[in-house]
Every structure is written in structure tokens, then in C-alpha cells.
Design brief:
Elements: H1 2-14, H2 18-29, H3 37-48, H4 55-86, H5 93-116, H6 120-132, H7 137-165, H8 170-196
């Protein structure tokens, strides 16, 4: 079955429309995280090891699409943000969550935007929230551009490494590339989980007070 499908995949990878498809998938994935943009870029990277498609163009198309999708998600959050705040009463859980997100983005927004790009659900949540809390657009665009380039390069190179490892068997190369990406994602999730665990409060030093008796009984 694989041998029957492989020629069609190779034809697709050789098509000049591939780059437009990668751009579109990465863009839609920015606000609709069910689209398999990572897998598509990794697959293109696997076949790029043979020279077709060209790896730099794969990375460029993926990065441009990711950037465009994040901007669209930010704009959607910006449009819905005032209404969301208006519907969130002071002291409510929703308002508290929005305030926490606002504070987190303003103190370490760059790190959050960069890291969230590698997690499909998280990146959509972060970009929507950034728009909703009116995070400064110039900073968002700058960090978003850096994150998109890093993400596109990462996905493309992961596939390229897999393709080089199995030049005669693209399917094995694809499986290797997806395995590497999954391992990196799981490792990052584990680190995030461990860092998010509440730390035990330091033991309080017991204060022993010796009180003299009021009187000594004979």
C-alpha cells in the first residue's frame, strides 16, 4: 500500500503548489489548531533531503504561514477582547484569569509567545489572549516573527534529518522525524509540568520559649 501511495506523495512534493499549501496549512493552524501543519512541514523536510522540494523554501513558506496565522489569531482576540472584559464581572474567575494572563504577558510575554508556538493548542490560546488583553502589537509581531522562523526551521530540519537517515525509505524518514518532534514536545511538556508543580513551603523554625514559673512550690 505504501508503494502505491508513495508516487502520489512524490508528485505532490515536486509540485510548485506545495509551498502555497504549506503556507495555507500553517496560517490556518494559527487560529484553528486541528490542522496538521507540523506534520506537513516535517514531511516536506523529509523529501527535501532528496533535493525536491527545496528546504529553504519549505522553511520560508512554513514561517510566513505561521506568522500570518498568529496575526489573524491576535486580531480575533483584539476584536473580542473588549466584549469579553465587559462580560467579566470584577472578582469573577474569568476576570481573574484575564488579569493573570495580562500580567504574565506583560512581564514575560516574549518567552511565552516563543515557547507556545511549539504547542498547537497553547499557541492559539496565547495569541488570542494577547489580542484580548491588548498586548502591545509591535512586541507581539516581533516575538511572533522570531517564533515563526524558529518553528519553521525546526520542523523543516527535523524532517530533513529523518530524510537523510533513510534516503531509500521516505516513510521511515517521516516516522523518525515525527518521533523526534514528539520526543522534544514530550520533554518540553515534562519540564513545564515539573516547573509548574507547587513547591513545598519551607519548614517553619519552631520557637521554643521557656517561661519561668510564677513561683516554685516547695
Amino acid at each position: 500500500m505504501t508503494d502505491a501511495i508513495l508516487p502520489y506523495v512524490e508528485d505532490l512534493m515536486a509540485s510548485p503548489w506545495l509551498y502555497l499549501a504549506l503556507f495555507a496549512l500553517a496560517a490556518v493552524d494559527g487560529f484553528f489548531p486541528i490542522v496538521p501543519s507540523e506534520t506537513s512541514v516535517i514531511t516536506a523536510g523529509v523529501f527535501a533531503a532528496t533535493g525536491v522540494p527545496e528546504l529553504p523554501l519549505v522553511i520560508l513558506a512554513a514561517a510566513l504561514g505561521a506568522f500570518a496565522g498568529d496575526q489573524a489569531s491576535y486580531c480575533l482576540g483584539r476584536l473580542g477582547g473588549p466584549r469579553l472584559y465587559a462580560r467579566s464581572a470584577r472578582g469573577s474567575r474569568r476576570r481573574a484569569a484575564l488579569d493573570r494572563a495580562d500580567a504574565a504577558l506583560r512581564t514575560r510575554g516574549g518567552v511565552i509567545i516563543m515557547v507556545a508556538r511549539y504547542f498547537p493548542g497553547a499557541r492559539t490560546a496565547v495569541t488570542l489572549t494577547a489580542g484580548a488583553v491588548s498586548y502591545r502589537y509591535r512586541r507581539f509581531a516581533a516575538f511572533g516573527a522570531a517564533a515563526a522562523v524558529a518553528w519553521g526551521t525546526y520542523c523543516g530540519l527535523v524532517g530533513y534529518i529523518g530524510g537523510h537517515a533513510f534516503e531509500d525509505n521516505p516513510l521511515k524518514g517521516l516516522l523518525l522525524g515525527i518521533g523526534i518532534a514528539a520526543a522534544v514536545t514530550l520533554a518540553a511538556e515534562l519540564v513545564r509540568h515539573l516547573r509548574a508543580r507547587p513547591r513545598p513551603a519551607p519548614a517553619e523554625t519552631a520557637i521554643v520559649r521557656c517561661e519561668a514559673p510564677a513561683r516554685i512550690l516547695a
